[in-house]
Specification:
Keywords: Membrane, Transmembrane, Transmembrane helix. This is Orphan protein putative membrane-bound protein. It is a single chain. The chain contains six helices and six strands. It is α+β, with helices and mostly antiparallel strands and 193 residues long. The protein has two domains: 113 residues, no CATH class; 76 residues, Nucleic acid-binding proteins (OB fold (Dihydrolipoamide Acetyltransferase, E2P)). A six-stranded antiparallel sheet has the order 1-6-5-2-3-4. A hairpin with a 5-residue loop joins strand 3 and strand 4. Helix 1 packs across helix 5, helix 2 packs across helix 3 and helix 2 runs antiparallel to helix 5. The longest helix is centred in the first third of the chain and has 32 residues. It starts with a helix and ends with a strand.
Length: 193
């Protein structure tokens, strides 16, 4: 395999692997309750990485804009063709797009790894604060459950596909959540009330 093939495989892996992980995560839909490590990773580290990568991209683009007249002409034509508002909006949403890509590359595989790996038995009592039907994109038995952690008062939301009619009756009561404890969070295997 020559360098061109390796570069092509690497590029395809970088761009398509997160999409595959995202589709896989949507299809499996693991009932996952995150812990502080996963929350730090998703809500603190990934946004910082997205910001840093966006700043690097803008700095590189600005430096290239100042040093290359051909690039200046291309940017001017792009702003004229697409309009200043649309081009500026695209630049503003670049960090959001980068965040989504990094989450699909890191956050989704962590949930899938937790779902497919065998971990320690885990059980904890939560307050079931909300029981709602899922949107029309999901099957009829899908229920969106919102748990309130009795220790930390954090809310966790998962989609659950069993006992929809029974769960509607136990809303606003404490239930026992049973599952497996992983390094980044908990996978729910069952509910007891």
């Amino acid at each position: 395999m020559n360098r061109t093939h390796l570069a092509l495989v690497f590029t395809l892996g970088i761009f398509f692997l997160p999409i595959i992980f995202l589709i896989w995560d949507e299809n499996v839909d693991p009932p996952f309750i995150s812990n502080s490590i996963y929350d730090f990773l998703v809500y603190k580290l990934i946004p910082v990485l997205a910001g840093i990568l966006s700043i690097i991209f803008f700095a590189f683009s600005y430096r290239k804009y100042k040093s290359c007249s051909h690039y200046q002409q291309q940017m001017k034509h792009q702003f004229e063709d697409q309009g200043k508002f649309r081009s500026t909006l695209g630049m503003i949403f670049l960090p959001v797009l980068v965040y989504g890509w990094i989450w699909a590359a890191i956050g989704a595989p962590i949930k899938l790894w937790a779902y497919y790996s065998v971990n320690e038995y885990w059980s904890k009592e939560y307050h079931l604060s909300k029981v709602e039907s899922c949107g029309s994109d999901y099957e009829y038995e899908c229920t969106r459950l919102t748990f309130l952690d009795l220790d930390s008062n954090n809310k966790h939301s998962v989609r659950w596909y069993y006992d929809k009619s029974s769960l509607m009756k136990v809303r606003n009561k404490n239930i026992n959540v049973i599952g497996e404890q992983g390094y980044f969070g908990y996978i729910i295997n069952g509910l007891e009330w």
